[in-house]
């Protein structure tokens, strides 16, 4: 208090913030000049700037009549630079060094704390600076003088040489083809000094016009240094508390942070990691670790992290393999990247790595030669895939690096079921891309059991569940038949009998479970270790308990109806693929996860007004039985119903028909003269699926 009384306030000054020259005002620092030479004596001949680099180049005239100017020295410099001849390319046309070039350099990297102030009539007006540039003499004219000197020496030495000596020698040229540039090599090249210099040289100069200190234009521009409005609404930055105002004037220095040693780009401390959002934390961890049990992931994220949120985020960047999470291929190989070994694009690498991951969902062992034979990738790429998730064993192959996580499978059956559906979709894509044979799809059950002896207890639980299911089989069968009869009686009125179409009658008694043989190799025939618990209401051989049959039937009917309204003709294989994708999009615990057999799916297709068309495919066709079963929506209520029925009759007699035959048949049956474009539209809108199957 005593110090404040000794230092009383003499005057209060209003401070205003001028915005007119915001991000346009630069401070130029000129070099020190002799006392007899003021800035008024200097004439700016030209000026130019590179805005992105904040680089300025000024050309100023030198007062050659000043007593401090050495005339003999100026003549000597002009002679060394231009020589005795004078032309348009001469630097000094007056044969005297009468001008000098100044180049700028940034005096400070952070100028946010600097401002230009103007005091007028008791008011202080501040304009933030956009840059502070120091102007220093440029000595490029000396380089020009050295070049002239070397040219004269070369002319004197080679002036009397003969024609033979003037001829250029024949030199051998070695042609080299550069390899595809990797992402790491590209980053190093972009950060190199040579690349930065090239980028700076590519920026064009912007020529400026210089106005003197007493010019009317300069007077006009100087008025912009004053705030145009004194209202508080335009100076809200100055309505701050004292502490906030001081923070704006003197922000925390970042020099200490810059002085700290930089860690490698692929290293991130746990303290820095936990400052990121949860999704980014999980993505970085999975990208670096590649394979991780869920318990380890939770321990790395710290205490208090919600496991439900972690499960939701980890499914976006990883897939479940043997109860453990493996990072997705598109996270490791982003789009528009390529292999550092072979230059193969990222899309092909993701497909090959997905095949390796899928193989590990069936078996704990994978053979490297088998993967290379299927994917057709180079050995280095295949080795990278295997090293991400497995360990090489002598004379055995590659074993999955982590043991089967049975605890996670028991605690999260919904997640396991959802991942199972995703893997079924991935398998369907791999079968089409790689034309997988049965030996690739068939798992090695004996090896899987011997390699994982801890699954004995799980097998016992499966046997117990099967025994209990057999006891309830009779009751479940009767209930299912009763519900099925009720559903058929309700939908009988909606069906239309078509005598011209041969309908294949499916046997009612035999149940045909949905094909999951490609996934029965891991953990005693269970995908990702999914074990049915005792007393579980899960379906047995496709039969559902009476309590949930109605809800399941309604959901299944809604899916089939909406699917056939979008695609009027589908094979059973395509319908199963769409159904698996639909299941993967459903939330955990949905009624459709209780289990749907092939027989139930086909019965529901027939109950919704669809017909099975017996297309006479050739005996030597390579299509699977599911691809030979073709179903079509007979009446959709649109303008193409009649055309679609005619097309179904045509393809029920022959699997390959010429376009002109289809056009004539449509015109005859429908009573319309259809042209080629209209026939194409009918085929595309109503019959594209079967046309695509026949073409394949």
Automatic annotation (TrEMBL):
Q: Which UniProt keywords apply?
A: Coiled coil
Q: Which residues form a coiled coil?
A: 459-486
UniProt xrefs under PANTHER family: DNA-DIRECTED RNA POLYMERASE III SUBUNIT RPC5 (PTHR12069:SF0), DNA-DIRECTED RNA POLYMERASES III 80 KDA POLYPEPTIDE RNA POLYMERASE III SUBUNIT 5 (PTHR12069)
Q: Which gene encodes it?
A: Polr3e
The record ties this protein, via Pfam families, to:
RPC5, RPC5_C
Where in this protein does the record put region Disordered? 146-169
Q: Where is the composition biased (Basic and acidic residues)?
A: 146-155
Question: Which named protein is this?
Answer: RPC5 polymerase
- One cellular component term from this protein's GO annotations in UniProt: RNA polymerase III complex
Record organism: Neopipo cinnamomea
Q: List the GO biological process terms.
A: tRNA transcription by RNA polymerase III
Question: Which InterPro entries does this entry report, sorted A to Z?
Answer: RNA_pol_III_Rpc5, RPC5_C
Please report the stretch or stretches of sequence annotated as the DNA-directed RNA polymerase III subunit RPC5 C-terminal domain: 444-693
